[in-house]
Amino acid sequence: MAKKTFPTRRKILTGMAAVGAASALPDVTRFAHAGSHSAPIKIGFQVHRTGIGAAYGRWYERTTMAATKVINDAGGINGRPVEIVAEDDGTDPKRGAEVLEKFANQHGCDIAYGTLFSHVVIGSAPRAAELKMPYFVVSEGHHVASGMLNRYTLQPGITDVKSQVQAMAPFVASNLGKKVTMIFPDFAFGHNHRDFFSAAIEAQGGEVVAKLAIPPTETSFTKYFPQIPRETEVIYHVMVGPSVLTFVKEMGEFFGPSAPQIFGFIDSLEAVDFATPGLEFLEGTHFWEGMPRYAQADQTDYDKFYRAQVGVDNNGASLDDPKDISTYSHMFACWETLYVIKQGMEAAGYTGPQDRTKLIEAVEAITDMPESNEHPQGAKLFNGKTHQVFGPQHISKVEGGKLVVQHTTSLEDGFYPDEVDYTTQSF
Amino acid sequence: MTRALTLHLGLIALLFALQFALPAYHHGNLARIMVMATFAMGYNIMFGYTGLLSLGHAMFFAAGMYGMGLAVTQLGMPVGPAFLMGIAAAFALSLIVGLLALRTIGVAFMIVTLMFSQTLFLTILYFGVITRGDEGFGIKQASRQIMGLDLSDPTIRYFAAWLLFSIVLMGTLWLVRSPLGRVLIAIRENEERAKMLGYDTWRAKLSAVLMSGTVSGAAGAAYGVLFGYVGASFAQVPYSIFPLLWVLLGGAGTVIGPLIGALFMFYLIDLSSGVTDAYMLVVGVALVLLTLFAPKGMMGMVRERWLKWLP
Amino acid sequence: MEFGPHLMLAMLEGLVQASVLTLTALGLSLVFGVMRVVNVAHGEFFMLGAVLAWWVTTMLGGNPAIGFVVALVVAPLLVGLMAAAADWLVLRRVEYDPERTIVATIGLLYIIQQVTLMTYGPDAHPVTPPFNTRLALPWYEFTDQGFQVYWPWGLSITSYKLFVIAAAIVTCLGLWLLMARSKIGLILRATQLDSETAQAFGIPVERVFALVFGMGAALAALGAVLVVPIQQAHYLMGGDPLLLSFIVVIIGGLGSFRGTVVAAVLIGMSDGVISVFFTPTLAKMLATLLVAMVLVYRPQGLFGAKPA
């Protein structure tokens, strides 16, 4: 059928496969030299290789493989090599649950890890609890900290949306404007933004003047923009999926020269090149970033190290292809989660599946995570009761086609009262 | 007569026995496949026996699933009665869809069912406050109990799935041999002739939609109860295509075809995804090859070549 | 925005959608009308057109206009050839049996999607439009001073979107001339009316079918090349055009050229116009339900003949 040749891309894919295969296989020689002949620790990696999450999944996989290589080069976990068992979940909740079963009962994995899309998390989490398998998710949703999941599900790598949004509101209200129109996808992820930001901006004395919930299947957006009230001072946008670039371009075409202030979550342009024609109007607008895509003037050595290991250049693109933009604001969480798993397993003296509950207790006991090569995005605080981590957030401005950090929030900006205490639940 | 009965009872006995023989992973898979095969058997009543090609069966599956799930989360019902609520919801939806969609035939029928299903999907999103939109919600493990039996336990889950599957399998077998079933087959072969022979074909078709939709809804409700998750992805187009594929692969208009098709598709994806990332490619090629070399599906081929009596 | 300008903007946007939809649906209608089969892979041919357009423009580089013009020719041609090959290798062998064709084309759909994912990747890639000027549009109002023209905030369109509308109209006219006036059109119409008799009169029906299948796919690809500077090429983009084309073909009445065009414009526009009055998701819900109800009460479509 569609036989096409993309030399650079194919090269990357084969390269990727080689890297993947190499790091998936335990490097026997190295660990033999280290004097250990123990079997690898198997981490089941639920990855979005196909379906709507594939653009994120590809970078999640690259980050995971890079972190695993660094961990193994440094002697693995408890002297054992780490083996990543990756299975595609098709970004589908049903297949996600099946994949978890496969990890537990077929591959004999120690834990499961890696999921991004929240419906896959929520569809899989019940199975994780039934299989009594720790499930480390990297999904940003508030579902972990809200208490709707279970003791086996943890999110120690990425701050949840509720916290992110709450930390953004003071900057938006005091620097951009108080009358906000929100544009978000009409499903749970977007509703999290809608509810938590509305509350947070009102606490700052601002108000949301209009809420535009866009159906997830939509591919053209201009027809909705007239619903933006003229009094709007700030547009708050967060979109996901393959149509994000259309959304942002059409927003620019709609406003022309008389746009209000624009504040967006980088999700709207994650994995998208800012140099794309039609995005010039974004110059001077602001974005939330989980981790700054462009290397900043005060770049830390940790960021430098992490970038080099994952293979990302100073513009957030793949070292092999400057047009291949990473999902920089999210994928760091894979790296950090693997290090939390390592820390937890070492603290618990983890030897095998019989120690799974000890592992969970050890992770629950973690609090401070200092900024380091293990946590290159910044210092974090883990809340063992809610199974949720809290980290710094960045607000960047587009200057000369690049994102320049203007403000970094403190951890306290994102705190909210606990909604659950998982540690009181039995295993 | 008895040959067919022996075969199907034997299949049920075999599935029962496999409970004790299968390793954990395949045991779990088979429980899931039996639920999905029940969905496909529901589809088969309309498509395989009556010749009505629906492209919107996900709506019945989802109606059962959400009827059950919302009864638990919104009305605080235990899962047993909630399961019946799911079936009732699917029955009500089948009645509405049947009354409207049966005014059309052929490709228009396909599109109408597709559009109704899409409307249900959007409705689920629109009432996100209750349904939790695309994210869906879990049914807590603690509440998944019927008469003191923990449905999240693998053995009990397997038996629950087996029970549902067996009831629907024997029900389908009974149906195709009943007078109503023969009218349905007559409609599939030639509706005009059936009408001229004096049968009320409209009423027969409506009952086919009702049975088909209700059985599919029961499968959806069972899936939610047994696997603890209710989500909008089950109302999307792929879940309308899957039962069609399973039935066509297994053999449309055969009683055990849906199980064979669901089993084949599941393991084709599961095994090939272990070997290659390109498992959808493998599935695509397999589908093309099957249409070329086994046009009546696997059981259809078996019936044509060897077992002429296969119902 | 006030009601008048809002409605106008929604209609303009609807018209752009309708233009692309018309081409895609005409492709499906052609296949449907002549061959009487449901091609589930039609949306994937659309997607292939968009992906090939990206590929061509990226390979050529330089002035985006040159790349775009080349893509306009090359992408539909390649997609048409692929589709004709698929017809010859698969559909011909299943003897165009309706059910087997559905399964076979679902298989094709999976194959095309997966191969695209493996080569082109999961990201959405943009194609630079050859020209894209924002054109602010005026509106009028009656005030104390009488009739006045003003420029409402946000009421605008781009030159490229206008071009898409024009290109679709030209293509439709060309296709109509081909069908109504040329010998190929005569053969196609004869095959559509009665393929067995056509064969008896020496028309090579098998080759006509391959040609029709290729032409149908090429039309979808052409629509995709036109839309890809507005919406990016993505390997999952084929789903929506497939659904919408189906709806258009049925509402328009099977095999009716005029019906397909009118239905495409109606459906393309209705999405935009309904969105003026309701919140987005509710608008989508109502638009979907409306289509279903139209078919329930007029199953032969708006322009099809009543069944005897």
Automatic annotation (TrEMBL), chain A:
One of its GO terms (biological process) is amino acid transport. InterPro entries: BCAA_transport, Leu-bd, Peripla_BP_I, TAT_signal. It comes from the Bacteria. Signal peptide: none annotated. Residues 40-401 form the Leucine-binding protein domain. Keywords: Amino-acid transport, Signal, Transport. Belongs to the leucine-binding protein family. This is ABC transporter substrate-binding protein.
From TrEMBL, chain B:
The chain crosses the membrane at residues 45-67, 79-101, 107-130, 156-176, 206-232, 244-266, 278-295. The keyword Transmembrane applies. One of its GO terms (molecular function) is branched-chain amino acid transmembrane transporter activity. The keyword Zinc does not apply. InterPro entries: ABC_transp_permease, LivM-like. Keywords: Cell membrane, Membrane, Transmembrane, Transmembrane helix. Coiled coil: none annotated. It is a multi-pass membrane protein. It is found in: Cell membrane. GO terms for cellular component: plasma membrane. It holds the Pfam family BPD_transp_2. This is Branched-chain amino acid ABC transporter permease.
TrEMBL record, chain C:
One of its GO terms (cellular component) is plasma membrane. Pfam families: BPD_transp_2. Keywords: Amino-acid transport, Cell membrane, Membrane, Transmembrane, Transmembrane helix, Transport. The keyword Cell membrane applies. One of its GO terms (molecular function) is transmembrane transporter activity. It is a multi-pass membrane protein. Its main location: membrane. The keyword Nucleus does not apply. The chain crosses the membrane at residues 15-38, 45-62, 68-90, 102-121, 160-179, 208-230, 242-267, 274-297. Signal peptide: none annotated. It is found in: Cell membrane. GO terms for biological process: amino acid transport. Belongs to the binding-protein-dependent transport system permease family. LivHM subfamily. This is Branched-chain amino acid ABC transporter permease.
